[in-house]
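fyi for ur records
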Amino acid sequence: MDYKRRRVLLREIVRQGGVSSQDEIASALAKAGVVVTQTTVSRDLAAIGAVRGRDGYRLGDSLAGHGGGGGADQDRFESLVIEHVVSVAKAQSLVVVKTAPGHAQMMASAFDACPPDGVVGTVAGDDTIFLATVSTKASERIVSQLCALLRGEGV
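which gave:
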């Protein structure tokens, strides 16, 4: 089986949810008739943009093309914030978002794809994101919204 077909199957397995390890994914692929190594699973997960969160693997590119209209894309964005953001703080007109190590780039892409009102740009390192806002008032509002999400209150 070629890699394109294997990755289609992998996307379906990840979309169905409930897989939290690469071994589980390899087993699910084997049940579908595709025998692969853990190395291949790892490479394919990276290629399709899958990320691992508290609830297992999910497609990290699910926010691509979002126009800021809410609905399912907003729900996915909020879920990513809950899963990957560790803390949020205000620094004048900047919002400083801390993530787990290695998660800042993915979360910055999510903020770029689904920016809160008032965010004009993002800069990300390994575990820190700076959200540039239009004003200190905007940064206060964004920090308040993100903290509410992290407390499980939604926005």
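The radius of gyration is 17 Å. thats all i got for now
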